[in-house]
Write a structure and sequence with these properties.
This protein is mostly beta strands. Helices cover 0% and strands 52% of the residues.
Amino acid sequence: VQLQASGGGLVQAGGSLRLSCAASRLTFGYYAMGWFRQAPGKDREFVAAISRGGGSTSYSDSVKGRFTISRDNARNRVYLQMNSLKPEDTAIYFCAAQYFGTGQPMRNYDSLGQGTQVTVSS
């Protein structure tokens, strides 16, 4: 399994970014997909997840209402639309794949990709 996240960058507070994750070497439709993030000096934390078909999603309380996860099974991609960004959203963001997951908040995953840096300035 190979997961490659992209789309990070520097944005002002209140702005938006859209992260993308390209998945390869897997049967994409067999995996729930998720996003995690890790800020400097902090543990990695769950951000969002989406079920294999895309019909079920879940979010951490800290991003609910501001972030939206989606997927395109035809293109083997998962996205994270991030709106109303806050400085505390600054972190490295990783995408994750969970074999036969349901889209519920992920406590574990089967593969984690390289991250993309998101920096939100105040």
